[in-house]
Amino acid sequence: MAKDAQRRWRVGKYIRLSREDGTSESVVNQEKILDDEIPCFFEPDSYEVVDAYIDDGTSGTTDAERLEFQRMTRDVKAGRINCIVVKNLSRAFRNSANQGRFLEEFIPLYRTRFISLYQPRLDTYLDPEVVHSLEVGVTGFLNEQYAYKTSVDVRRTFRCKREKGEFIGAFAPYGYAKDPRDKNRLVIDEEAAAVVRDVFRWFLRDGMSKRAIALRLNELAVPNPTAYKRAGGLRYRNPNGAKSDGLWCARTVGAMLTDPIYAGVMRQGRQKVVSYKLHKRLAVPESEWVTVEGAAPAVVSREEFERARELLSRRARTAPGARAPHPFSGLLRCADCGAAMRRGSAGKYVYYACRTHDERDRSRCARHTIRGDALESAVLASLRLLASFAGAAARAGGEAESADASRRWALLRDGARELERLRERRDELYEDWKRGDVERGQYRRLDEAYRLRAERLEAAARRLDAEERAAREAPSPLPGEETVPELSRALLRCLVRAVRVREGGAIEIELACADPFASALNGACAKRKAAVGPT
Question: What is the C-alpha separation between 438 and 432, in angstroms, rounded?
Answer without folding.
Answer: 6
